[in-house]
Write a structure and sequence with these properties.
Elements: H1 27-39, H2 45-48, E1 60-64, H3 68-73, H4 79-100, E2 104-111, H5 119-142, E3 145-150, H6 158-170, E4 177-185, H7 187-204, H8 214-218, E5 231-234, E6 253-256, H9 266-277
Parallel strand pairs: 1-2, 1-5, 2-4, 3-4, 5-6
Length: about 290
Amino acid sequence: MAIGRMTTPLPTAAPGDTQTPPLPADPAATAALARMRGHNPDADPLSRLPDVHPARIPRHIAIIMDGNGRWAGERGFPRQFGHLNGARSVRDTLEECARLGVEALTLYSFSIENWKRPKDEIDALMDLCIRYLDGEQEALVRHDVRLRVIGRREGLPPEVLGAIDRVTLATRGCKRITLCLAVNYGSRAEIVDAARSLCRDAAAGTLTPDEIDESALAARLYTADLPDPDLLIRTAGEMRLSNYLLWQLSYAELHIASEYWPDFGVPQLHRAIRDFAGRSRRFGDVHEAKPHA
């Protein structure tokens, strides 16, 4: 039987209980929760979203954080003020994803195309990146959050690269959830870089053309160590992929939120996951695919 939205909530931990809640009797829920708690013992989607079956919680959520500039402009502030306030939404969304047992959260932070923006806005974004990483390092380690940054390093200021490397190193052993920031990222560039890597191996004789298949190319992508996103959220009502994770999003479910990113919070995240949980994912088949276990 396909697993859909739950009509009867599964049992949750008692209020104030600091112990890991017991696994429910539902075998599919048991399997999903065991998978979640294998990397995050505190995962408790039953109390956070009791109307969504645990097997329907996305393993990997990708977000295009749109609308920071418009949010600031409508309030009479410069665009940089919107980016600064958007950082709060990053923190709230990351914390809630961890509570729900999500394995990875990937955020489109700065695209290759964003270099076309005014210099003062670019400078502010680079400064915000440094301040966010340095300011959040201790909290990321304390909350067992691993940082991954994807994108081309070429072109990024040395100070940004230094902050990325410091936090990546400090969190390399963390397991609760992976926060993946796409910085100086473009999906077409990523695919080109993967193709170049394959070509170099083929030229060196360590790989034949016949050995190049989808899995071989996927293994050369920046996200090779992460599952493909199950759910893409884009804020501000925009309906474009904007050169973001084009390969990885091939079978992702899309959710368009009307709110600007600084106004996106836990209720909006829950709404997106409920929307996702109600979808039928067939991956080209006539039958619905088995949910995560």
